[in-house]
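Is FHN placement plausible here? Inputs below.
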Amino acid sequence: STTQTSMKDYIKEETKEEREARMQWWKDARFGMFIHWGLYAIPAGEHKGKVLEKGKIGEWIMNSLQIPVAEYEEYAKQFNPTKYDAKEWVRIAKEAGMKYIVITSKHHDGFSLWDSQVSNYDVMDASPYKKDILQALADECKAQGVTLCFYHSIMDWHHPDAQAPHYPEYNTDKKQNPNFNRYVEQYMKPQLKELVEKYDPAVLWFDGEWIPEWTEPQGKELYNFVRNLKPTIIINNRVGKGRKGMQGMNEYEDAAGDFGTPEQEILSGKSNGLPWESCMTMNDTWGYRKDDNNWKSAEMLVHNLADIAAKGGNYLLNVGPTAEGEIPKPSVERLAEMGKWLQVNGEAIYATKSLNNFKEGETIRYTQSADGQYVYAISLKWVGNQLNLKNITPKEGSEIKMLGVDTPLKWTYDATKGLTIEIPKDLQAEAKRPCKYAYTFKIE
Ligand code: FHN
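Reply from A.M.:
I modeled the complex. Tokens:
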């Protein structure tokens, strides 16, 4: 057919330079918001009096409690998020210092958050809400200058051609749905085409690729299919079978996808070339669970961001909005704290380069400005009267400042002792410090 003959093989034909140029904005962005939102926000961890076990994630409730399709579909009739305010969501992300948003266009449960032409199981056709959630978000992202991206599940527990034949065990063992290719060609690909053409996402973040029906050649084909729809788009490594467990980097050399996807963890060091993004929850679930209050502290989240940036990665931090359409307050509060920190320290995070010596001890992380003129030493704890750094040799007469403080700091350098930066007395009072959680020294 004509589409096949005009398909370009981007995997084979793109040069390293072209790939790097395509991914530059994403690498510079460093920090994004993950949004897991769908029907599972309604049960919120409890279905017909049965509560999900502790540690189980909210968006998996259909699978974990083995809810039959017809019974789960009832939630679509209740999906009416009257408090959904795209403008507010984008504002929250933007004020947190997040440069992009990755929202679940469709999660494993199969429910679509836009008006899909190939499905009746979407927010327009199956819910009383009847408004295109993705359209509202796309409009707001454009208005506020935040980059829109989609998460899309390959696994689908709802579509008869995709769900496991031994339902309700859901694609967990080797038994395969014989009609899976029909789902791919007649449903998944048309959906992806709609998403790319209608909303122009900058990233497609695939997931649910571990099912036995899916193969690496299919992943490569899908990668090229999406790139042909939008050549500049960025695609994660879960498009194929390359992902190595939760560590998320590639198991083999030629795996499809542009970046690795560590999940709930941070690489212990730098990657050997493959760009990467750590995705993480703020509590213990992706999709909203009303009983999950195990929130990470704002301090821990800031430290994670600094650690990831020092190792050259991105941080994709999740929120799970409620069925009414609100981002939970504890998430909003933590994001606001991160935004305040980034307003002072963002210079040491965004568009920086990673150093070979990216850390010193447990509490210092280093980054470097893109032009190599400055090194940033981020101290994850308050330093006291002096900060001693062994990894850094400043230039003669170098100006050293703490970000957020105007006056340059006094310093000495000694080949054996290293660099010693003096911290002025007035900064010893917590209230006088430029920010909380971590302190950045900009060294020429
Ligand atoms: O099963 C999903 C899970 O629900 C969630 O979406 C995370 C996010 O990275 N990914 C899968 C597990 O790897």
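Short version: The chain has two domains: 2-348, 359-443.
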